[in-house]
Amino acid sequence: MDKGTADGRAQLRRRLGLKLWLSGGWLGALVLAAVLAPWISPQDPLAQDLLSGRTPPFWADGSLRGFPLGTDSLGRDVLSRMIFGSRIALTVALVAGSITCLIGATLGLIAGFYRGWPDRLISRLVDIWMAFPPVLFAILLIAVLGTGLSSVILAIVVIDWTRFARVVRAEAMAQGAMDYVASAQVAGRGRWGTMLAEILPNVLPTIVALLTLEMGIAVIVEAILSFVNLSISTDDPSWGGMIAEGRTSVHQAWWVLVFPLIALFLTVLSFGQLGEGLKDRFDPVLR
Amino acid sequence: MTRPFLEIRNLSVALKGTRLRLLRSVNLSLDAGQVHGLVGESGAGKSMIGKAILGILPLSVAVVEGQILLDGSDLLALPPVERRRRIGGLTALIPQDPLTALNPSRRIGPQITDRLVDILGWARTRAEARSLELLEEVQIPDGARVMRNYPHELSGGMRQRILIASAFAAEPKLIVADEPTTALDVTVQKQILRLIRDMQARHGTALLFVTHDLGVVSKICQSLSVLYAGKVIEDGPMRDFFAAPKHPYSASLLAATPKYTDPEGSLLPVPEAVIAAVRADVAADDKGWTHG
């Protein structure tokens, strides 16, 4: 290898590294916050104090000690609520993301590799599924299932598995046409074995990228559902719920809206960037 | 007379759900240790024959009649698991495009040793030793390092050598080489061709060589079949074919081969009349199929 491409590769790796570090750093901090929430929160996230409602963040006049990011209209500490809200955000991201991925990727892999009637069945199902407006679908589901964390997760899974199924199917189809798959089959590997041992590793980078993207989307969907009051009870602090509450008093207390929004934004962005970075890292050609 | 190692009887392959045949009652036989060429234009069905033997036909087509006898047993009559074991144990494939024929996300080593371990039940250390031996045989220096490489770290020629080594690894009795030199550049083509011929001679493997290049056929094969639209229009020993092709289509195919000595007289198109004649042949053969 000549020096030029070696340099280019090192440069690429450094840039990938930075992206991975920044997004990984934010998500790592979030995980820590979620795990340590009871110990690091300055206040009880549910404690109300109507007399000290809408106090501003620490740098503004009239701020209260121990309430660094201010309080909402009921006098609850914004920072503490955000820290506890990260638990819900991460739970939804991890659980909904993984289940969605597992179901969608499995069906996509089978459809793309086996073709024939499994493909026809799964593809038609995806087509029909995607014809429903997703938000309406989610609202309908939750109306039937009742609110709560598990309903939110189920709604996300039910809506979003098609994303995985579509992309993974296309990728599996492309890989299935390659000569190495034919060679593996001549060498006596069964269909199922070929799919798991030959196709899956080559589709994995795509699945990982999609998975992290899906985690970001799950966080957003949870926020949307909270926003329309269909997620978990408003007592439990979730970012979406905070944004919804903050919206009503945005002129008097912008911080109630803005801080959870920033957290949401950074989290979704980080998931996306992490996926990109991991995909490149997984790619044997760049490794 | 001894029984041929591979015998294809009256094999027809059709697009699923139609009576459109892509292979039209193909007959072919190949003795152990012999090299047989399959030649024809693109789409004539030459690769399709190889794929039918190896059980890797595209999902959109199916065998509609005929037998493929491999070492005396009809592959098509065997249950799938048994068939796969037989094919895996007796045959191997040298694929056309070395760039897609190795799994990009796995190291070279296990890709060669897998079939030895899985099909022949060898111990992994023995399979690895055998692979090193074969890599040496296909003139790859530093085989131990290459086995730890990923495919993208190697050149096309290197990869084709690895695929050849891998094909011979389990000592198959029959290898299907599906245009193994087409994707390579001309200088490498010649080396690879020589390598395949040497390996074939040393191991005594029967070889079914799929190509559109009559020049290649003349160097490596003892006999050949000429295909047009899925029909064998001429077959026989190599020498007879080059001395006096029987079918006018094969004659003009032969005449169309580029020659260094006579650039003006090369690359002649196959005359319209000849094509019409061969098509009429095929159509006559199809009676009872398309309307049956």
Explain what this protein looks like in three dimensions:
The complex is a heterodimer of chains A (287) and B (292). With 287 residues, chain A is an all-alpha fold. Helices cover 74% and strands 0% of the residues of chain A. Chain A is built from ten helices and no strands. The longest helix of chain A has 37 residues, at 78-114. The mean pLDDT of chain A is 86. Chain B has 292 residues and is α/β, with parallel strands linked by helices. In chain B, helix 3 packs across helix 4 (124-137), helix 3 runs parallel beside helix 6 (156-169) and helix 4 packs across helix 6. The model of chain B has no long low-confidence stretch (mean pLDDT 88). The radius of gyration of chain B is 20 Å and the shape is globular. Chain B is built from eleven helices and ten strands. In chain B, the strands form two sheets. Chain B has a six-stranded mixed β-sheet with strand order 6-7-8-3-9-10, with helices on both faces. In chain B, strands 2-1-4-5 form a four-stranded antiparallel β-sheet. In chain B, strand 1 and strand 2 (21-30) form a beta hairpin. The longest helix of chain B has 18 residues, at 186-203. Chain A binds chain B through residues 115-116, 178-180, 182-190, 198, 201-202, 204, 284-285, 287, and chain B through 51, 54-56, 59, 81, 84-85, 87-89, 91-93, 95-97, 100-106, 111, 114-115, 118-119, 150, 152, 163, 166.
Please work out how many helical segments of chain A DSSP would assign: 10
Task: Report the total helices of chain B.
Answer: 11
For the biggest sheet of chain B, the summary is:
6 strands, mixed
Structural class of chain B: alpha/beta
Shape of chain A: globular
**Which bin fits the share of residues in helices of chain B?**
40-55%
Average residue-wise pLDDT of chain B? 88
Oligomer: heterodimer
SS class of chain A? mainly alpha
- What is the CA–CA distance across the termini of chain A? 15 Å
Beta-strand content estimate of chain B: 15-25%
